[in-house]
Amino acid sequence: MKKIKVCVIGQGFVGLPMSIAVSNVSNKNNKPLFDVIGLEKNDFKGNKLKNEIENYNFPLITGDKKLKSKF
């Protein structure tokens, strides 16, 4: 089965958790259903977020341990 591509625009307080949630959806064989692409602005803040995400550092302040572990 071919994975569906999903694009989430913005990787801030709403977009990043949405990207994480969608990317963790799997079928009954525990295989991911979606390829997720996150878009962010090409400015200082957007590049900072992108760099944190690419270096596997969760860039948001939250107490949600499940969200951080799924990241």
Give an overview of the whole structure.
This protein starts with a strand and ends with a helix. With 71 residues, the protein is an alpha+beta fold. 10% of the residues are buried. It is globular and about 40 Å long. The chain has helices spanning 15-23, 44-54, 65-70, and strands at residues 4-9, 34-39. It has a two-stranded parallel ribbon with strand order 1-2. The chain has three helices and two strands; from the N terminus they run E-H-E-H-H.
Keywords for this entry:
71 residues; globular; alpha+beta; 37% helix
In percent, how much strand structure appears in the residues?
15-25%
**Largest sheet: spatial strand order:** 1-2
Largest sheet: 2 strands, parallel
Helix/strand/pairing class, anyone?
Answer: alpha+beta
How far is the first residue's CA from the last residue's CA?
A: 24 Å
The count of helical stretches stands at 3
- Report the radius of gyration as a whole number of Å: 13 Å
Shape: globular
Give the H and E element order: EHEHH
Unreliable stretches, pLDDT < 50, 5 or more residues?
none
Number of strands: 2
Averaged pLDDT: 95
Helix share, percent:
25-40%
In short:
The protein is α+β, with helices and mostly antiparallel strands. The protein contains three helices and two strands. The chain has helices at 15-23, 44-54, 65-70, and strands spanning 4-9, 34-39.
Draw up the topology in text.
Elements: E1 4-9, H1 15-23, E2 34-39, H2 44-54, H3 65-70
Parallel strand pairs: 1-2
